[in-house]
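Sharing a chain and its predicted structure for anyone who wants a worked example. Both blocks are below, sequence first, tokens second.
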Amino acid sequence: MQFGDTFETQQYRMKVSNCFLLFIFIVISGNDTAAQGISIDEWNNEAAANIRLLPKYGYAKKTRAQKEADEEFIAASMKTCSSRREASDKMIAVGFKYLYKDVKTAMYRFNQAYLLDSANSDIYWGFGGVYMVLGDLERARAQYQYGLKYAPGNAHLLTDYGTYFLLLHYAYAEIDKKRADLQLDSAITYLNKSFTQNAKDPNTCYKLSVVNLLRNDCKKAKHYHDLCLSLDAHTIDTGFTTQLRQKCK
């Protein structure tokens, strides 16, 4: 607990902590966050001395040696890519492969993606993902909002921003139903916007199934569940499928 917290804030922090693993298993299936082995406080301490752990390198003024290393990295990347955007996208893909196994390496790759193409809005998808895994929801939110400011139609950002609100729904569910429902409304809004941009993303379909099940809308929950299965059956956790079938007989 932090000094100055109200009782409600303390309860909220406890709920975020308690529901986070449940959320990971329900919504982000197949990933092992327990393997991260680093708390947000430890992360912050290390980031104070390591700019590679800060989004966009913390806007730090780099040394001549660091700048030369950056130029060498860019030159090497461009040997196998036709554009800076392609190289940046590749780094983002690598970052997500590491995200749930080695969050530090993931952040390194997302920063390299920024180095290759600072206008690539998917870098905020990556930065937000790092803070989601670390449990720092407010910094995750800031990254998603920043990215959506410049790319309001980015489906990746819309889905994960919706996921942020879904996690808040779980956090408030047992302490403030009205506020929990408002978070769920926001989650559905952003997930629907994402689906409009890309109807073939299994991750978005999965989460739309989850939010509609929470809304007791079995028709839509089943629709998005089945659509997700047709796109990528490995995206859905079998535990959620069982829960859906039990609730929507």
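Comments welcome. Confidence is low (pLDDT under 50) at residues 1-22, 24-35.
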